Known about the structure:
Number of helices: 4
Strand content: under 5%
Number of domains: 1
Mean pLDDT: 81
Low-confidence stretches: none
Number of strands: 0
Amino acid sequence: MNLIVIAYILCAGLPFGRLGNLAPFAPSGARGVFAAASIVFFAFIGFDTVACAAEEARPVSCRNRARRAASPHAP
């Protein structure tokens, strides 16, 4: 439902937009805006992947016991 509302707003406002208005805001034009948006999107996906993996990781106490068992000289 949210995507439908966003698509409607974009389509309704498209005739009123002017590409000349992007010149000072985006010196590379729409191509630069989409390139930056894709970088931000993939950075968020990467962060989300790391956060989900960290949530499923074992507690620190388990790793410390395993490290001590493997090497008696470990801190």
